[in-house]
């Protein structure tokens, strides 16, 4: 019995490490209005996020793979904040803001954490597992969805590629002018 439990846990964690990512139907990212932990409203369409590469990470405080990826997200955000990249956590523990605040403090989260709603979950295709991370390009289009633990190296490589493409396109626009 104990061996079955251990095997089940190993299988769960194995599947939680990037078991699905890549091909998504490129579409406009749904806008949202969500509150942060200080009751300030954030919208995907607000000026602070327009024209930026966005990473939306749906997570929960009780989720082991979510807890494992948070330190990497903190490090990733420190490195990329000045590069027109924004990371936003959307916590699905909507019933307990105090627990979320404690979690944010304990994990020293340095990016905005918003309280998720049923509507935002539905708008983003149901978010059937957590963690789930969406990558949105500077034009507001969803270009990737990662279900399960997001490796920092994978995320960094994707963002570096997107920035190179954006810089190349910006350079071509300037030459035409």
Could you characterize the architecture of this molecule?
With 177 residues, the chain is of the alpha+beta class. It has one domain: Glutaredoxin. 41% of the residues lie in helices and 22% in strands. The chain is built from 5 helices and 9 strands; from the N terminus they run αβββββαβαβαββα. The chain has helices at 2-16, 64-80, 97-106, 118-123, 152-176; strands at 20-21, 27-28, 33-35, 41-43, 53-59, 85-91, 113-115, 132-136, 141-147. The strands form 2 sheets. Strands 1, 2, 5, 6, 7, 8 and 9 form a 7-stranded mixed sheet that branches. Strands 3-4 form a two-stranded antiparallel ribbon. It is globular, with a radius of gyration of 17 Å. The chain starts with a helix and ends with a helix.
Number of E-type strands: 9
- Binned strand content: 15-25%
CATH superfamily: Glutaredoxin
Shape descriptor: globular
At the fold tier of CATH, the topology name is Glutaredoxin
CATH structural architecture: 3-Layer(aba) Sandwich
Count of spatially separate domains: 1
Can you lay out the helices and strands and say which pair or pack?
Blueprint (H helix, E strand, L loop, with lengths): L1 H15 L3 E2 L5 E2 L4 E3 L5 E3 L9 E7 L4 H17 L4 E7 L5 H10 L6 E3 L2 H6 L8 E5 L4 E7 L4 H25 L1
Parallel strand pairs: 5-6, 6-7
Antiparallel strand pairs: 1-9, 2-9, 3-4, 5-8, 8-9
How would you summarize what this structure contains?
The protein has 5 helices and 9 strands, in the order αβββββαβαβαββα.
